[in-house]
Queue: 2 jobs
Job 1
Amino acid sequence: MYPHAMEWLEKVKWAGNGLVPAIAQDARSGRVLTLAWMNRDALARTVETGEAHYWSRSRSKLWRKGEQSGHVQKVRTLRLDCDEDVILLEVEQEGGIACHTGRESCFFRRLENGEWVETDPVLKNPQEIYRT
Amino acid sequence: MYPHAMEWLEKVKWAGNGLVPAIAQDARSGRVLTLAWMNRDALARTVETGEAHYWSRSRSKLWRKGEQSGHVQKVRTLRLDCDEDVILLEVEQEGGIACHTGRESCFFRRLENGEWVETDPVLKNPQEIYRT
């Protein structure tokens, strides 16, 4: 465990539901990969292991990013914003794929002339990613 | 107004409170600048004007970024994530300052050995920014 664990964990202004948004950014490309959610436990385990952990709101469980897909996020730096209620992770994205659709980034749609257009290629078929 | 305005606005999965998180990233440096919140009106005005508008949860009002500080965000691209509930804006940050503390980015604290350390300089005194 880290020294002063409670202090840095309690510095974060957790919302009423115990969560804050966490943005993952690729350390090499600078691409914003995903926004997920963390609770105290997710942040503590992220720091302890050096791998991104999130809280899955849909499954109501702690989730180590890549536990099924292998697309682990190795954390280089962790940042906290001015209001102390948003986390930013600079990560090395295993496999170069962060999105469950098999794309590099979850932000693969761009607004063009009033329509959301898919601009990014699928790098790996999700059925292959989640085969097991 | 955009054609099909309702379609692309309704494509976004607004939360129960009518909001989604919106991440602003600097188009030049790639730095993640801030996370704020948008409702339908904020997103519609952002697209209409080409300048980032957000919903202030603390003031319960629509807010044109930079309306007081002059630190307007000119929007280059707008992206939507795989779950259609997070917006990513690539922006040109007027003045090179996004944070109300006078720093480039709101993410100016980094976790180092169990402490949140301020790593970024204040570029302009907030009292000068919000003089008027």
Note: Residues 40-49 of chain B form the longest helix (10 residues).
Job 2
Amino acid sequence: MADILHRIGIKSSSIDDVYQALTTRHGLAGWWTSNTQGEGNQVGNIIEFRFGAGGFDIKVSELTAPTYVGWVVVAGPDEWVGTTITWELKQEGEYVIVLFRHLNWKEPVEFMHHCSTKWAIFLMSLKSLIETGKGTPDPIDVKIDNWN
Amino acid sequence: MADILHRIGIKSSSIDDVYQALTTRHGLAGWWTSNTQGEGNQVGNIIEFRFGAGGFDIKVSELTAPTYVGWVVVAGPDEWVGTTITWELKQEGEYVIVLFRHLNWKEPVEFMHHCSTKWAIFLMSLKSLIETGKGTPDPIDVKIDNWN
């Protein structure tokens, strides 16, 4: 098993703003992909994320407002299905700290390397959305390699 | 043990340009930290990287020009000492693909989450250096959180 781990700090005194960006269609569409369907504010809900080259369906598995969001990937690329994604939020001074984890990849395949870097890029998009009101979700996301 | 994995693609037909950016003082200072001492073009060499808040000494452990660079961290934060960093390069069409690995962290501590995101940022700086001639090394690096 292999894991992707990241940490960002968002300059904000409102941990709830960050929680909303992870649990509402509007928020998610503002930093990850514009083509997001579904709301993430209820355990059991399915959220459909679509990108230029495919997408993922994610089931909300755990919510503790405003500090924790848990997802399970239920459809998408083989490497993603069955993995879990968790978001841990905490206020530290003037920052909301986000501890991100994409857990339980079966193998550390090359696609996982790509996704690790791309998650960092999307987390910076989330940071930008909260700090400036403007993120860079797909299709205006920052490209990192020949896989996009 | 826990690992940080990343993948970027640099628009370049010269894999050697990327190899030089990983094995010369001038190249490393162009994307990681301006305060770099030592050359990375000989196995056994020590390179000293210094940042605003500390730094690392890295020993070059393996070189296969222009496709592979291996480093061992010999001084720095406790969490870094003894870890290994590897760079695998390959040409894919119009991209030089970089597979980056920072291996054998003892524990997936919060600092590792930070370093994972920060590596992605510095890899994008390396990409920018080769593609545009200008990277964003420390101290002009992109800040990600309250740890910098």
Note: The mean pLDDT of chain B is 97.
